[in-house]
């Protein structure tokens, strides 16, 4: 998916023809959703009133938050043994995060926003965060992704995540020695196993699976998020994530209760 589709414009064609998708950062692929939807547009819809929907909706109907796509909810793995996830497997809201350890905005989100979300929502049982490796900045990104996965095999993914996103960590690079140092800092017990796992086929396959999922959605930048089927692009302010999580939780509660509290 190229960033700009610079096909020569035909002089005879009207101006209204250019495709909207060429400028957008995250398009939901047709394989996942029938109509392609741009993540940026969906995130803006989430914060603006959808008068058309509210006019036509019945007072008893339980409507999902604007910009939500049920097909994307199925991306949540909800595997209780997933070492690259935190929060209850049955939490009402799942936020999937596609990120790269060499991405500055991912680091900003990890340091400035994610801890507050964990404290307010994960610890309360409302939110589950599922990480997906999406290395897009070359060989060191790929190596860091595999190393993070390897740390997870010893139950230390999130500690590795914290160390790799610490201020100034990215600037030191993610060479083999540095990755081992980060694993040690993260409390990975068996460093020799960590090195073997980092270079193993299982790590490569796991990272590729996450990448393929992201590219299948049309994600081309990091960080990108899906909150209960609602895409969000970039390291947005805490309030944006809080609003998306609150609305998703409210919708799940209403859907569980059913119309007029019937439970269906």
Can you walk through the features of this model?
Belongs to the thioredoxin family. DsbA subfamily. Residues 12-24 have a biased composition (Basic residues). Residues 1-24, 46-75 are annotated as: Disordered. InterPro entries: Thioredoxin-like_fold, Thioredoxin-like_sf, Thioredoxin_domain. This is DsbA family protein. The chain has helices at residues 39-45, 51-56, 70-73, 104-112, 114-122, 139-152, 157-164, 176-185, 191-199, 201-217, 238-257, and strands spanning 27-28, 37-38, 85-86, 93-99, 127-133, 224-227, 230-233. With 264 residues, the chain is α+β, with helices and mostly antiparallel strands. A hairpin with a 2-residue loop joins strand 6 and strand 7. The strands form 2 sheets. The chain has a 5-stranded mixed β-sheet with strand order 3-5-4-6-7, with helices on both faces. A two-stranded antiparallel sheet has the order 1-2. The protein contains 11 helices and 7 strands. Helix 6 (139-152) runs antiparallel to helix 7, helix 6 runs parallel beside helix 8 (176-185) and helix 6 (139-152) packs across helix 9. The chain is elongated, with a radius of gyration of 20 Å.
């Amino acid at each position: 998916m190229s960033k700009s589709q610079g096909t020569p414009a035909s002089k005879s064609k009207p101006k209204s023809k250019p495709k909207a998708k060429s400028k957008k950062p995250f398009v939901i692929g047709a394989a996942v959703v029938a109509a392609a939807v741009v993540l940026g547009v969906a995130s803006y819809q989430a914060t603006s009133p959808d008068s058309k929907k509210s006019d036509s909706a019945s007072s008893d109907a339980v409507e999902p938050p604007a910009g939500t796509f049920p097909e994307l909810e199925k991306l949540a793995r909800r595997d209780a043994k997933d070492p690259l996830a935190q929060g209850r497997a049955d939490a009402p809201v799942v936020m999937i995060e596609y990120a790269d350890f060499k991405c500055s905005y991912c680091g900003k989100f990890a340091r400035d926003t994610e801890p507050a979300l964990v404290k307010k929502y994960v610890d309360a049982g409302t939110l589950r965060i599922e990480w997906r490796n999406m290395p897009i900045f070359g060989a060191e990104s790929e190596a860091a992704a595999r190393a993070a996965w390897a740390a997870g095999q010893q139950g230390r993914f999130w500690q590795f995540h914290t160390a790799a996103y610490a201020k100034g960590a990215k600037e030191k690079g993610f060479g083999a020695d540095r990755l081992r140092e980060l694993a040690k800092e993260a409390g990975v017990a068996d460093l020799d196993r960590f090195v073997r796992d980092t270079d193993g086929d299982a790590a490569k396959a796991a990272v590729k699976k996450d990448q393929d999922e992201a590219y299948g959605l049309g994600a081309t930048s990091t960080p990108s998020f899906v909150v209960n089927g609602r895409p969000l692009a970039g390291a947005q302010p805490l309030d944006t994530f809080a609003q998306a999580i609150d609305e998703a939780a409210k919708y799940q509660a209403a859907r569980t209760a059913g119309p007029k509290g019937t439970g269906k």
